[in-house]
Specification:
Length: about 500
Amino acid sequence: MDTIIILDFGSQYTQLIARKIRELNVYCEIHPYNKIPQLSPDVRGVVFSGSPFSCNAPDAPIPDLTHIKGRLPLLAVCYGAQYLAKWGGGVVQQSSTREYGRANLTYIDTESPLLKGIAVGSQVWMSHGDTIQQVPSGYRCICSTGDVRYAGYQIEGEPTYAIQFHPEVHHSVDGLTLLRNFVVDICRCSQNWTPESFVETTVAQLRRQVGDDTVVLGLSGGVDSTVAAVLLNKAIGRRLHCIFVDNGLLRKNEFQNVLESYRDMGLNVKGVDAREQFYGALRGLTEPEKKRKAIGKTFVDVFDAEAKQIADAKWLAQGTIYPDVIESSSVKGPSQTIKSHHNVGGLPDYMKLQLVEPLRSLFKDEVRRVGRQLGVKDSLIGRHPFPGPGLAIRILGEVTPEKVHILQEVDDIFVQGLRDAGLYDKVWQAGAILLPIQSVGVMGDERTYERVVALRAVESVDGMTADWCHLPYDFLARVSNDIINRVRGVNRVCYDISSKPPATIEWE
Ligand code: XMP
């Protein structure tokens, strides 16, 4: 597979470069600038990302250019452009104003293959504190903006290009054209990274990897584990044993509905009712992190007991996806743990299972495309993310079966309401939270003193940042009314209007 290597210098936009290149159906991989892999013959070009560093800083990241510059097509973005200019003897200095935001190209070298199809006036996105004052000889300016003379340059006699702006950011309106010019025309990559080709090569690879062995997989109802299971099912059929645990913290009817869908898809799946075990482990716990840990441990115990009953299990399949892989080897190191987001998996060492992770190279949107390619139902592919600890982190304080029941009813009215109003797909994630307080109300002639729930609906791309959704007032009014009328024990509904940051999506 033709491949582009992206060297990460710590920019917040590095993953976006990769996603844009993948959108062009070209395969690419991100590696830290200081851990350059051996470049196989499949590597057709290299991209340098931006960086929060100044190339003049004493601890600025310095890549080894030996096997790259002049040997392979290179596109250096932002910091990469500044670094290459300085490396060649140019001058890079702090600009008097931080150049941040939209700008327009006022000059374009129409001869440059990088800028083919892009016209003067094109809007680009700048985000840099340093600026290139002077380029070395042999570096030709290929575009400028009103404020930035060297918005882009090309090195004569070699396929090395550099740009000061960020083509990967949505506000650079011709950014995708520029990236296409680079990866398709300059690097000559074939655009064969498609869901079809992924399925075909992965199925063959899985067959080689696991041979005649038996594989165990924990399904969660989420997109990743579902797609991983369907891929493995295609590769090895009944030798894949799936385990779907009812932890008593799922949405209303979720366990039965999802289990049925799994069976309809032909998966070899066992449903395990472990509700009491989870409720027992959660009894008396009020601290969010303690609740998460208790759920994680109980999951391992339940899964372990089930997996032991599967004769000759040699492999554990997981739905790990590319952002998890990059995160664990990123330039900045694994990001600080704000919440311990345990996910399904993490089995004790003594189980001695080898890991198989068929989605390791995919971004979330690619997992969905592969899922569609494999015929997974839209109701499973398009569902909102749902946290591993489920409703336990949406019941603030101690979790009891009674509270789970109340919250399931509230959540069901809200989420079904979103579906009925055609809003479900416009929202990235939605759910209800049961608050640990009671409030006074009046129903008929009676004073009530009952529970309060909050509704949360957010827009997001990857859950790292999020905005609260501006749901229509009449929709909120209807849902609030339905909840208070239909769910016994709830007399007040609030809507959460906090964004992340500084809030988080979940309340615990
Ligand atoms: P926060 O609350 O950190 O949530 O803004 C970001 C995304 O992560 C999900 N989330 C979890 N997922 N285990 C999970 O598997 C967890 O413990 C957990 N906590 C939060 C959350 O639902 C949102 O999609």
